[in-house]
Amino acid sequence: MGEGGDPAGAADAGRPVSAAELFDGLGITYEEAFGRLPAQSDAVDWLAARLAPGSRVLDVGSGTGRPVAERLADAGFEVTGIDVSRVMVELARAQVPKARFEQCDVRDFTPEGGFDAVCSFFPLLMMTRAEASAALRRMAGWLVPGGYLVSATVPADVEDAEVEWMGRRVRVSSCSTDAYLRLLREDCNLEVLHHSVSLFLPDGDLAAPEEHLFCYARRRGGGAAGSEGAAGSEGAAGSEGAAGWGGRETRGRVGQ
Ligand SMILES: C[S@@+](CC[C@H](N)C(=O)[O-])C[C@H]1O[C@@H](n2cnc3c(N)ncnc32)[C@H](O)[C@@H]1O
């Protein structure tokens, strides 16, 4: 399937496009549109500054491997990426030979051993809320004590909403910033060290402006870090409510 084509005939079949179909179709176009997010760059720097050399990092929904897996592998960490899209995994393997990539749905993934950090940048949005919550809980469980979960999502109080995204009609679910933080703290039993909401403004016309929520959290216990300084302390920054699916949602349920 080429860029701009009907992802695997899903529309003809009258069923929602799956994440694998969507990202198989987007391929490198995703990186062209979203590969330079300042808040993601800050998150990777924050994480890299806290990990010991050789730490094991899992990148869930690793996409093209750039920038996250590439930067972490270049920094000397042992990086595994998993992604449900065959095309994304092929791109990542070609672009980031220092990391290991596996084509796998995070809902089916069972790691061997724990991770010092798990990155989860935007892989959960095409799941139901219940599936996304369960996936985050599992990721938290893959962390060694003191390990970090660094994650990002689009904060929007929507469930099974049809939106236009990168020129495709897709069905998405997400939750508000407060609900996401509650999920990390209460369901995943993580300590949230920092969160920020930023407005992503694309360079070109491949994507539209959207809000991004980045959270840095840590599993309790273990010897890592101790008390965090100002840069790592819990706090919110950026704009709330400026743009996002809540405003563009056309079908489906909005509100909890
Ligand atoms: C929005 S992209 C983000 C890519 C990358 N994390 C980044 O921030 O540059 C979401 C990625 O998650 C992957 N993904 C979506 N659902 C997934 C699932 N259930 N299991 C594993 N990967 C998934 C997609 O194929 C896609 O590559």
TrEMBL record:
Region described as Disordered: spans on this chain: 223-256
EC class name: transferase
Name the record gives this protein: Class I SAM-dependent methyltransferase
Keywords from the UniProt entry: Methyltransferase, Transferase
InterPro entries, per database record: Methyltransf_25, SAM-dependent_MTases_sf
Gene Ontology molecular function, alphabetical: 2-polyprenyl-6-hydroxyphenol methylase activity; 3-demethylubiquinol 3-O-methyltransferase activity
One Pfam family hit: Methyltransf_25
Domain of life from the UniProt record: Bacteria
Known EC number: 2.1.1.222, 2.1.1.64
Record field: compositional bias (Low complexity): 227-240
Domain Methyltransferase: 57-147
Gene Ontology biological process: methylation
Keyword Lipoprotein: no
